[in-house]
Amino acid sequence: MLKKISDIFGRYMAAIILLAAALSLFVPESTLWIQTSWVNYLLMIVMFGMGLTLKFQDFKVVFTRPKDVLIGCVAQFTIMPLLAFLLGKLFGLEAGMMAGLILVGTCPGGTSSNVITYLSRGDVALSVGMTGVNTLLAPVLTPAITYLLLRTTVQVDMMAMFLSIVKIVIIPIALGFVINRFFEKYTQKAAEILPMVSVIAITMIVCAVVSHNAEKILSTGLVVFAVVILHNLAGYGCGFGLGCLLKLSTPKKKALAVEIGMQNSGLATSLAGTAFAALPMATVPGAIFSVWHNISGALLASVLRRIR
Question: What pTM was estimated for this model as a whole?
Answer without folding.
Answer: 0.81
